[in-house]
Amino acid sequence: MFKKTLLVIAILATATLTPITAQENADVSIIHGIPGENGLPVDVEVLGVGCIEDFTFGTVAGPLSLPPATYTVSIKLPGMTPCGGTTAIGPADIEFLDGENASVIAHLTETGELTASKFTNDVSPTFLAQSRLIARHTAAAGAVDITLDRGRGGSVSVSNVQNTQGVGYDVGSGRRWNVTLFDNASGDPVLGPAPVTLRASTVTILYAVGDPASDTFTVIADSINLR
Predict the structure, then answer these.
(1) CB 57 within 8 A of CB 38
(2) Are residues 117 and 50 in the same domain?
(3) Pairing outcome for strands 202-209 and 130-137
(4) For a disulfide at 70, which of 38, 95, 102, 139, Cβ 3.0-4.6 Å?
(5) What mean pLDDT is predicted for residues 146-153?
(6) The whole model's pTM is what?
(7) Do 218 and 142 share a domain, yes or no?
């Protein structure tokens, strides 16, 4: 009995001394990357949170601060009431983790179908005078090769990036970089060179979106301040 009492006291003491870690909200950005007439306005419904109305192509909304959980997300055509129209994408259950920084983009698949993808963003600190550049392929196109170039300052390249894939590098800030996408099969440039000036302690995210066949292939940019 005495030993059991000591054990109970030890457990209670450990529980008292061990703090309960509070959960941290996830920061979530929503991006409209599907081209269409007049910007293809849509409503984005996050069940239990609310409705983003009249969301047009190229728009970045947020970041939304959401308690970590799984949320049902639907992208809807405009209706008589906010988020009351026909569902175009979803509903999809998307999990956001404790303290996660994430982006959800509505975009086209390689074959031009409507979809949405979640990306987790690397928001770890960069070295002094550096920034992070991330390029993501979310366009109606096959595999691409991505080149980041700043002339005599050097360049980096990655090959065979598929739809929903991306690449990221920590690079020197304050100077202009050129981002070019090449068709992996033919080697022909399909987008760019697009100039990007990077700020220190900042994540710059470039999304290749649209459809080269309909002349809507372009880039949407988003940024996250790490300070």
Answers:
(1) no
(2) yes
(3) parallel
(4) 95
(5) 78
(6) 0.86
(7) yes
C-alpha 5/C-alpha 97 separation (Å) is: 39
pLDDT tens digits, residue range 130-146? 899 999 999 999 999 99
Q: Quick one: 85 and 50 in the same domain? A: yes
Give the three-class secondary structure for 86. coil
Instruction: Give the model confidence (pLDDT) of 66-114 as tens digits.
Output: 999 999 999 999 999 999 999 999 999 999 999 999 999 999 999 999 9
Domain carrying residue 202: 124-227
Which tokens sit at 26?
A: 């996830």
Token pair for 137: 């392929």
Q: 19 in a domain, yes or no?
A: no
Is position 76 within any domain? yes
Q: Are residues 114 and 128 in the same domain?
A: no
How many domains does one find in the chain? 2
Q: Where are the beta strands (DSSP E) in the chain?
A: 26-32, 42-46, 50-55, 60-66, 69-76, 87-96, 101-108, 114-120, 130-137, 144-149, 155-161, 166-172, 176-183, 189-197, 202-209, 218-225
